């Protein structure tokens, strides 16, 4: 997801909730973003540690710019623009909205300060509330879908804020922590290993993609038919211990497990372990939002690229699931798990489930699928700037499903299609195995 | 198709023809490769104009190395290796076969000379014929599928020889010709424009991929079911004249038509026209294997990338076909067209067909599809070096269908899946439009 | 000056002033650095806008690390290290002092904060004062030269702080100002042009380089003899108006004026004007530490590379002076000019001098010479970490002389050799012409 | 010497020999170039193994283009241009002579063939001879200096032909030989080590640079005075055995020996030995124009960069000589040595000389000096295309002196200034130590 801000934004197809609920949801998402930034200093919020990463304050400003640009400017007659220069600084990708500050230079902006950005947020938040209160029904019909989309957009950036600050802190030799380490009680004892079982699904012609009236991004539709052969899905995620066995079997030095492009990437970048793993003599440690700590072999492996997930699966004699297989299977589980509200901010070891039942489908890590990110049959981008880029990212990326430990709980749907380039590792991305029936 | 030699090679699933026919087919393909090189000087055959391109003599040697490595060394007890150093020089990708000369340095090899390579070819060709004559039935059963695969492999390299030498010559300010320009009688008169019609296909659950006993590469299988909605396919390819209208409408400067990665590519490389187009005052000229000549607005546009094909389709309000749509449609046409045997060595203007009938499906240009190159459901690579890389290229590339003006006629199948990176332009690749029914 | 901190540091040969004066000089330089940072926010102080630039707080910490490492740790028995991690973070180049944080990643450090750095400074400043007060004579003899060197080192970083923040602010579309624009009274009226005269110097065998007892960096010595032929030096710097005439005569598009490497640089980077110049319709504006403003044709051209200075001189039918010519000529002028204490923070138009008298020799802009930065005959680096890199930078760089508008006044000497790569433009560097007699 | 053709060419100041002698010298140099190419195949002559290297046939054509462009076109009224396209293909750098084929693409030209180039040579050679025979005195006065310059220019390219083909062959795993290995008698026995002595020179004011009537390039003048302090020069070159001691003492892994830019180069390119050295178990081998062979510890180290030469000298507690020191010392030796006519095509071990006498000053290897390549005082480029680039290369390069084992004997002068970038290693470049008296 090179340009996540936009991607998310643009792909929305929107169904408005009721108005009071919308106002509350809007307030909640605005507060939540600011709460995520609260543990960070002004300097923390300004850093861009690689081109894919954006500074925290950029996320805070860009999500605000969205409401200002698509809701306030067109529909709030009395609205006074906070600062005309922000349109240039905080547009992420919208060609129809004019020129943009170069993505790779977001970390060069000491001004506006994080204080300025907070004032900008409050200015816009108040104006949206004001508009929601005073607008007539005709305007409400126009803005409610846009605000709903803006909320979903801001939720995505909340996940990016945590992904990105993790990367920023990882580049600092002092290794700052975003949140203090869990107490011994919370997480100190190492979990017991959980048996990996397989759940079978029969073949047939099924419908996939978003249907019904709730909100979904436009890339989740239209609803369409796909034939699936029978398949089996692993009952839990691949663990760090299992991944270590792959590493110890020469996983990173044996080309036979890798896609050609994957092997070229491994060679060029010198990968020998997942991102954020560090070897300390005989012991692997990992960097988390709660600081450096020893690796738990029973926790799910995280921060692997698609190439690594695919190579692991080949080494294990299995494969990754297709996105439709995952979606079909997810219909059998409850829509909860280790998401951001749990507070772990890192995937957790599986709990023993019923024999062969699927666990960890929602939350913990985004699960790489075998499916290239492509439009569903019949997909058409919406008109105008909102829809300008609906299909812009449908090349060279792979679909991930399920949400992760830093995903806002409201943001999860089983039709949700996340996507990243196959070499990306800074998302909380992991592996679930599949096999033919 | 970064590493076409291997890719093709590795993905073979093989069914042997009868022995006498095999011997003849083998002789024919070996002669044909040498005939392709005949118009070229020793210096021409040594040039590598970019990393994707291989020198002609490398192709001649690599296809020979294939028979030596996979047929003669294992099965011809008396076989004397021509030169042990060649295993290093002419292995393209087979990890199981040991280290290889770096791909990007193939143009640094003045030795072995093209004369040496020809001697190598004759040594191996004779040894294979000898083996085919003398082998007992058990050996025959082993080598016949391998020779069949080697023939298909060599046919692919024949196409690459022509693609590659075209690129080599295009980099020479003297603009050498591979073959003399067609006489006025042959190609002098500009064709009449042909109306673009649409042919409709109904939806349903269909089977796709190779079935039956003839030879096919392994990526063409297994046969599997896919649901298709109804669709329409354009009756002919997009012409240069139509593509010029896209260009004149600002096609290369308006980001709204482009995938995000496509726009980044256009910007970085300064693309403003297809490869091999040159502006000469008010007039467009193109470089062909028969030299520079004026553009014919009625000939199919060629040497466009997937990004350009996709942008053109969006500009035209249409889309590219899915590979299954193309395959379904191709069942309605005869398996012939403007292939290498026609001698044009360039796509030709469409002839008027029956109203709405599909033309130019086979030959002229490889047609970009909207489908990412991915394994078919149930696909499994074969064991051993032959199968080592069967799935190696199934990431980041797009499927093309149909063959082109430099494809050997024996090499065409409607299940054939060609593939290139979305930014590749040196293949003879073009555009056919599709739309939803 | 790729790694200015070290370079300067290392090349010191040191003669200590009297103790009380030293204590005062130390206090003055420490205060001055903090005063330079005072107008900047914490976020401003963290930005690295290109690898050559360091964040303000890095300069503040690195100059402190110098005193901690070379004075306190070896000589202050009771000294408590402020934070052991800082040795890694704030070492600039000293191999003998162990591993260092990568230069290009200095902008990724949100921690330590600028507040932490200020506490670090006060901790070290107090400890040095304490040591200076309590040390016996033997220790004094050791530390006084080191403190003298540390003061010169910190003065150099003071100049870098201003050079670097100018670059940082220039990358921000909001174009922050370091100091408010001068009032109309101060600088509003455009200066009158001043005639460019020539001052002649006879040839002969002269001595150059530092001699005597005052402090100098080691690259300024040893004193040595050089034969000079007669020459003439321009009475003032080249102005923006004169440089514009070069530009309007096709200066940036005519290879005949350029060194081969210079032309390659111009072509690769698309240079068409000095750094910080921007065209606003028909009018040139420049970015200064006091904000954007109209160009004054009579002010000295600034922020040109050696390549541009050399090309300008060739266009003008002149040449750049050799560093010995400059040094000989500078003996005829007083050691003052538009330096940092003047407060302009930008070069100023020349004042009419006596006919043919040299003006602007000290301050305004560093003057590119025709001399490659090489060791003087007999130069030998000092032993140990302090002297480890004395000659490290004596390749591929060019000497500049004279100081500039952001140089601390105490820091100027006529034997002073500044040096930068010939493509560097972010220093306050300009042009004085010379010709053979 | 990135662009040697031009550089050499352009810097000529010319004094014509007598006419008959000139005609003979011209014939000799033209024949010699062709004789150098005679052992090479057409394919060998077309390869460009890195941007610094040019194909043999390019050298053969470019030296011919020089005579056609600067002698025949202006002065031979009846001359018929051989092929107008060659002006574009074989111009190396002359901006005044119009556009040029990009240097890095010289290896993409299979056409013109080496046969075409030979025909071009003979056409031009005959025309120059014809002109020399028939021209009246006025024309002779114009062309004789140009032909003299063209001869020197072609001699330089003869050296480049051998440097370049060595690099080309080194990139071929078959390691072709340019000339068969020397027989045991010629070179089989390892030489005895020769004691390294020191020869002293007193200080004083001396004149340097070309004087008198013989031919010299313009960068060798004007004659000018330089003051030198007393110094000592090593009696012979640094040997491979001595260089190995540096390597075994950690020379390539200890930054304290290296210039900052040198250390960055070593790190980025992974240098651990001179170019063309290869480790074969416990034994070092080197690639020569006569093939791979064991290293002789007593032969001079060759194919080191300036950075390596400088680091070696620092390790050894010495320094490199200044170019004037070398020139002063060279006045004491005879102008002969191991040059191309000796046939070794590689530096040879020193012979024991008189105690402290200088050996190996001429030939064997170009000796890196401590002097940056800069214009001598009073240097002015000549007018017009011939002189267009006289000073173009006077930045970022270092001077080498003395000639090497592939230098034509006629081409050596003690005022001769060769120059290369400090990271260049494909010239036959080595090390002589110096120290202060």
Please explain how this structure is put together.
The structure is a homotetramer of 437-residue chains. In chain A, the strands form 5 sheets. Chain A has a 4-stranded mixed β-sheet. In chain A, helix 3 runs antiparallel to helix 6. Chain A is globular. Chain A has helices at residues 4-10, 19-37, 56-75, 86-90, 114-134, 137-170, 184-188, 240-248, 260-269, 306-315, 323-330, and strands at 12-13, 198-201, 204-208, 216-217, 224-228, 231-234, 277-280, 283-288, 291-294, 366-372, 398-401, 418-420, 429-430, 434-436. Residues 1-16 of chain A have low confidence and may be disordered. The first copy, chain A, is built from 11 helices and 14 strands. The two termini of chain A are 32 Å apart. The longest helix of chain A has 34 residues, at 137-170. By secondary structure, chain A is of the alpha+beta class. In chain A, strand 8 and strand 9 form a beta hairpin. The A-B interface holds A 2-3, 93, 95-96, 205, 224-229, 255-256, 258-262, 306-307, 310, 322, 370-372, 374-375, 377-378, 388-389, 391-396, 422, 436 and B 2-3, 93, 95-96, 205, 224-229, 255-256, 258-262, 306-307, 310, 322, 370-372, 374-375, 377-378, 388-389, 391-396, 422, 436.
